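Anyone else keep sequences and C-alpha cells together like this?

Example one:
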Amino acid sequence: MVRFIIEVAKFAIVTTMLIIGLVANAQKLDNSLLWKISGNGLEKPSYLYGTMHAVCETNIDDKVMKAFDETNQLYLEVDMDDPNLQASMMGGLMMKDGVTITSLITEEEAKKLDAFLQKNIGFSLKMINTFKPFSISSMYIPKLLDCPMKAVDTELMNISVAQNEEVFGLETIEDQMAVFDKIPYDVQIEELLKSAETDLKKDKEEMKKMLTIYKSEDIEAMLAFTKESENKLASDFEEELLINRNQNWIPIISKVAKEKPTFFGVGVGHLAGDKGVIKLLRKKGFKVEAVK
C-alpha cells in the first residue's frame, strides 16, 4: 500500500502541474517556448522556458541547450530533485474531515467509477476512497498517450544535474497542493466521473491536440485550446491556478536573475496573456524576447 501511495504521489505531482500549467489569458505573442530575459540591470541574460508535464517528445533542442550553457542554475515550479518531495506530496493526498469519494456520488456512479478505476489503474474504488479525486485522475495520465510518458521538467532537471548545477523551485509542493484545496471536492469528482463516463475517450482527444500544439510551440494556440476545454479545474479556477501564482513568481524571478543567470522552466500556460509571466516581467522593466 505504501508503494501504491508513492506512485499516486508521483502522478499527482504531474497532474497538479499539468492542470495548473494550462490555464491562462490569451494575448498575442510569438510562437516560442524559449524566451530570453535581459535588461533591467541584468549583467547576463536568463531564460524562460514553457514546459509540459506529460509528453511523448520533449521540445528540447540546440537553442535550449545553448541557453543552459549560458546559465548557472535551474528553477522549476517546484524543486524536482528534493528528496523529500514525494513525502511532502503524500501528506496532501487524502481528503479532509472524513470525506470519501463514495459519500459524494450515487451508488450507481460508484459502481461505474469502480469498474473504470480497476480497468485503467488496477485498483478498486474501495482502496482509494479517501484520496482527493484529482490525485486519482493523475494515475491514468499515461493511458492518455500513445507512447511512453516523458516530462519536460524531468528532462530539464536531468540536464542541470549532468552539468552539476543546482535545481530550485519557485514554490513548494505544499503551495501547489494548497491550490487544489481551494477547488471543491465535488468539482474534482465531476471531472473524474466525466473521464469514467467516456472511458477516457474525451481525455485522449484533448491530450492529442495539446501535444500537437506544444510541439508547434504556439503558446497562443495553447491558450485558445485551454479556453475551449471542458475541464472545470482549468476553466473555473484561473485566479487560483494561474494569476496568483504568476504574480508570486515575478519577485522571485527578478531577484534570482539579478543574482545569477538562471534557466526558468514553468508550465507553458503560464507564459502568455496580460497576466502571464512574459508580460509581467516586461512590466517590471525586463526585456523578454522569443528565441527563434
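And example two:
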Amino acid sequence: MDVGIGLPNTVPGTEPSRLLDWARQAEGAGFSTLGTIGRLVYQGYEELIALTAAAAVTSRIRLTTSVLLAPLYANAALLAKQAASLERISAGRFVLGVGLGGRDDDFAASGLSTKGRGRRFEEQLREMKDIWSGEERGFAGAIGPRTVRDGGPELILGGTTAASFRRVAELGDGWIMGGGTPEMFAQAAAGVDAAWADAKRPGTARKLSLAYFALGPDARAQADSYLLDYYGFLGDVAGQVAASAAVTPDMVRAYVAAFEAAGCDELILVPTGSGLDQIELLAEAMT
C-alpha cells in the first residue's frame, strides 16, 4: 500500500511559503502523494491552486485532490481545462479526486442548489471526460491542453452510497473514502468491487482513503483544535472525528496496517497542523 501525506492547505495560519516547503520536504521523505481537502466557506487555499504551486517545486510525488467538491465548479469545461493544465504542468502527476460535498453553505455561497447535485455531477464528469478525449466542441474546437495521460487525469470519485459506487464503475478510475474506520473501508470497498464487476470493467478500481494525524508532544491538542473547528458544523460528530486522529506513532502504524489489510491501495494521512516537524515525525513513525 502507498502512503501519502496531506498538504496543509486548510490549516488556518499556514503561510504560502510553508506550503512550498511542505511539498519539497514531503517529496524528499518519500511519500507517494500530496493530498488536499477543501471547502469553500473556510479559511484555506483552493486545492487546484495549492497543488499547482506544489507541482512547481516537486518532480516525483503525485498531486491528489482528495477530494475537490466538483459541483461547486459549475463550468465543467473550465474545470476540465484547469485539471488538464495541472496534469500537464506536473508531467502527468495530477490525480483528480472529486466528490459531491455535504455543506449547504458551500452551495449557497456559490449560488447553487443542492437539489439535483448528483445528476449534475454525473453530467459534469461525462462532459469533462469528453473534453479530455479531444472531442471537438463545434463552435470553438477542442479544449486543451492535451493531457499526458490518455483520456485525462486519473479520476477518483468519493461517496459511500450505491449511486456513488455506480459512478465509480461507469465514469471513474477509482474510489476514495473521506474518513472512517478500516472496517468501514472494507465494507464500502466491497460495494465498489461489486459495481465494477457489474459494469464489466476490466481489472479493479484503485481504492484510497484518508485518515487524520498529529504527532509530537502537543498532538492531541493540535488535532482537537483543528478538527473540532473544521468539522464543527457536524455537531457531536466533530468530536468523533477528532478522537479518531492518529496521535502517536503506534496509532499511525496500526492505521497503516489495518487499511492495508482492508485492501486499501493508498492511504493519505492528512495533517492537523502545518509544522514541518509533522512530516519528519510521520516518516519516522512509518519506519
